[in-house]
């Protein structure tokens, strides 16, 4: 549940999601669910020329299982909080 | 079609009675969507319904094939009214289509026969390239691309 809560905190921030088929999409994180399915708004594809079909897509839903990486905004990452949360999770609480 | 009772005002009559809150696709119901599947295909259509596995039903669905600057929309009219179910685990991405921003201007619509031909040519070119790369595996192609007579290490 750590990453679910973590991503919930990132809602509203700009992230880049790279999929397993090499498609990289940048957009505002709108919501996330327990499977880490991700919904992005105001999306744009990083390599637009290679993926012309994505031009018409502004909002999209990405299945969690096809995500390879999520590139996070540096200001959205607080290492201290993450450390604490990890310890708490490891203790089972 | 109109003799069916509408379950939700302003929502598809196919809307699940109580969509699970963890699913984020509710706002795409009854909208024109683009679905990318795991095998790299693209389907467009109206999103009728979905379930908690992520299975989708599209209405008036068509498959869009793009090869270079050519594209072709193939109607799935072998199924009644283009109703089309995509299994949840095959879905990669669902995008809401903005009809004002379609494909780039320079792209050209062609017939199914033409797109199949272009697909075949592209596949053969890729196969050849992969074969060449395999045979010349001892060359480092990253360096090879940057190689120039003036820039020899």
UniProtKB/TrEMBL annotation, chain A:
Intracellular or extracellular location(s): Nucleus
Classification via InterPro entries: LSM_dom_sf (IPR010920), Sm (IPR047575), Sm_dom_euk/arc (IPR001163), U6_snRNA_Lsm2 (IPR016654)
Organism whose genome encodes this protein: Crotalaria pallida (Smooth rattlebox)
Listed name of the protein: Sm-like protein LSM2
Keyword annotations of the record: mRNA processing, mRNA splicing, Nucleus, Ribonucleoprotein, RNA-binding, Spliceosome
Primary site of residence: nucleus
Protein family: Belongs to the snRNP Sm proteins family.
A GO molecular-function annotation: RNA binding
From TrEMBL, chain B:
PROSITE patterns: SM
Sequence ranges assigned to domain Sm in this UniProt record: 20-100
GO molecular function: mRNA binding
Keyword Ribonucleoprotein in annotation: yes
One GO cellular component, as annotated: P-body
Example GO biological process: deadenylation-dependent decapping of nuclear-transcribed mRNA
Alphabetized UniProt keyword annotations: mRNA processing, Ribonucleoprotein, RNA-binding
Top-rank taxon: Eukaryota
RNA-binding recorded as keyword: yes
Similarity section: Belongs to the snRNP Sm proteins family.
Name of the protein: Sm domain-containing protein
């Amino acid at each position: 549940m750590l990453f679910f809560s973590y991503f919930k905190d990132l809602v509203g921030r700009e992230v880049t999601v790279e999929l397993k088929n090499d498609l990289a999409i940048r957009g505002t994180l709108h919501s996330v669910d327990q499977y880490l399915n991700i919904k992005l708004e105001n999306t744009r594809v990083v390599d637009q020329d290679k993926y012309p079909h994505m031009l018409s897509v502004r909002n999209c839903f990405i299945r969690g299982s096809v995500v390879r990486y999520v590139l996070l905004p540096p200001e959205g990452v607080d290492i201290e909080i993450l450390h604490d949360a990890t310890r708490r999770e490891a203790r089972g609480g | 079609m109109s003799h069916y009772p509408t379950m939700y005002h302003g929502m598809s009559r196919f809307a699940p009675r109580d969509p699970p809150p963890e699913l984020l696709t509710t706002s795409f119901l009854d909208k024109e969507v683009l679905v990318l599947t795991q095998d790299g295909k693209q389907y467009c259509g109206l999103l009728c319904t979905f379930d908690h596995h992520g299975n989708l039903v599209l209405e008036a669905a068509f498959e869009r094939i793009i090869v270079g600057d050519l594209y072709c929309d193939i109607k799935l009219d072998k199924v009644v009214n283009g109703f089309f179910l995509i299994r949840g685990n095959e879905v990669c991405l669902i995008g809401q289509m903005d009809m004002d921003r379609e494909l780039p201007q320079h792209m050209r619509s062609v017939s199914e026969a033409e797109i199949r031909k272009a697909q075949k040519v592209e596949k053969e070119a890729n196969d050849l390239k992969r074969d060449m790369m395999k045979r010349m595996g001892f060359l480092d192609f990253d360096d090879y691309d940057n190689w120039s007579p003036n820039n020899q290490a």
